[in-house]
Amino acid sequence: MSETNTAPTRDFIRQIIDADLAGGKHTGVVTRFPPEPNGYLHIGHAKSICLNFGLAKEYGGRCHLRFDDTNPTKEETEYVESIQGDVRWMGFDWGEHLHYASDYFEQLHDFAVELIRQGKAYVDHQSAEEIRANRGTLTEPGKNSPYRDRSVEENLELFARMRAGELAEGECVLRAKIDMASPNVVLRDPTLYRIRKVSHHRTGDAWCIYPMYDFTHCLSDAIECVTHSICTLEFENNRALYDWVLDQIKPACRPRQYEFARLNMTYTVLSKRRLIQLVKEGHVSGWDDPRMPTISGMRRRGVTPEALRTFCERIGVAKADNMVDVALLEFCIREDLNARAPRVMGVINPLKVTIENYPEDRVEEFEMPLHPEDESMGTRKVPFSRTLWVERDDFREEAPKKFHRLYPGNEVRLRYAYYVTCKDVVRNADGEVVELICTYDPASRGGWSEDGRKVKGTLHWVSAEHAVAAEARLYDRLFTKENPMDTRDGSDFKDHINPDSLQVRTAYLEPYLGTVADGYVCQFERLGYFCKDRDGTPEKPVFNRTVTLRDSWARIERQTDAKG
Length: 564
Ligand code: ATP
Ligand code: MG
What we know:
Blueprint: H1 12-22, E1 30-33, H2 43-58, E2 62-67, H3 77-89, E3 98-100, H4 105-117, E4 121-124, H5 128-133, H6 152-163, E5 173-176, E6 191-195, E7 209-211, H7 213-223, E8 228-232, H8 239-249, E9 256-260, H9 272-280, H10 295-301, H11 305-315, H12 326-340, E10 343-344, E11 346-347, E12 350-355, E13 364-369, E14 379-384, E15 387-391, E16 411-414, E17 419-427, E18 433-440, E19 458-459, E20 462-463, E21 468-475, E22 502-509, E23 521-524, E24 528-533, E25 542-547, H13 552-563
Parallel strand pairs: 1-2, 2-3, 8-9, 10-23, 12-18, 16-19, 21-25
Antiparallel strand pairs: 4-5, 5-6, 6-7, 11-22, 12-15, 13-14, 15-20, 16-17, 17-18, 21-22, 23-24, 24-25
The structure holds adenosine-5'-triphosphate and magnesium ion.
């Protein structure tokens, strides 16, 4: 991976826009981000948001947020609100251009009437099964509907009756009259309108016919004078229909559809339909569970919008589907937090240390920088006393050769405090080490020795009496399989949920962490980045681990470079 290249690369979409502007086809750029409000946004949507809003920003144009709300059964206001919050949090703004496809229902209806008048649409009374059976296959043409040659007058009257609620759900649909033998199945008289006698989250009971995606999307783009309508590759075949509708209606503004590869990521599921299952079946605590690949989940976990935007920039925009290694996302999060997160101390797997030559009633306060390289972050005070917590992993009874931390007889530095030497261990009835007896060198105050004596290990620690007991939530990937969506082995994605994706520990934290606000992100030295969660109470704060400090991405890159 090359170092951060901030200049936007000229991917194929930017090349197309450059040419459109240079050739005078357009004088400005208008894009849109068109989510269906049927779930929370995930990191795949973040890619689309960065692309659409990013283009608008780069070219001095605008990007609309348009809710594609044509399916009343699955859509809810909760989703509309979360989506707006997520886009804003990502750092983008739609200005006055908050739109809803449902705002165009009247206009879309009139366009449908226009198609009927042109003889380009008809009301089909075939059942859903008949329509499916007569559609043909990839190798065989479809069959014309027996209702295909209804007169314009009859179609106008039937469509009016559909709208008036006189016909039953499923009784008939409005279809475009294109070509039942087209090699592109999408063009075999696609459905434009269907009857749905359900309330809509915005239009209530005003409508009982609802337009289909393919009819709605291109016309909404045209109504808003979108210039470049960017969607994912699975809509490639739908482009012919997008263009067909616009060719018949001839709106004043003529948008074009371009397709790019959707984001797929290892160990991750990116599909609202599947994410909703995880939520509804209780596999996670909600849409914003910190293990979810949703924008709200990542925000709660401590990921910043900058890290997400950097990630989207690094993966780029291409025309071929691929799978992005989740380690790249973790790398971007780490790199971002490394620069911005204050350093503090907490112990997540505690082992007691008693410093036998330290006076029992004495407490010292050490003033420590919040970031070793960024003085502007300031300092905080950390109390030191005779009884401390250190990390259990920082002690070994039998130390291997390169182990420079605590073991009997060894001297280490307690970060910014003193040198201590392990003298003895205390065991419980099971023989397990429960306490270390140490001595400290009063001449090493601040964590360095006047005689220039060197110690190799530097450990983090917390004064036991002053510690804040917190809940630390340690997360691992939600799925154990690299591609949980691969069903070739007959398995379901839920078969691969990682049973150990959440581990809860009691952690002891320096007192400063009892005072920080929810959402505060910091590095617990040597343990990873942590974010204070809203679930906590003043007595028991909760911290989510955002990422560990271990970077597997650099290693992957080195291997790839070595290979080739
Ligand atoms: P999902 O597949 O998760 O259900 P969707 O495509 O149904 O997503 P929409 O609300 O229709 O969700 O998506 C809004 C926009 O986000 C669309 O333009 C869509 O192409 C884009 N988008 C959705 N998923 C991804 C992804 N994984 N990578 C890139 N863009 C995506
Ligand atoms: Mg969709």
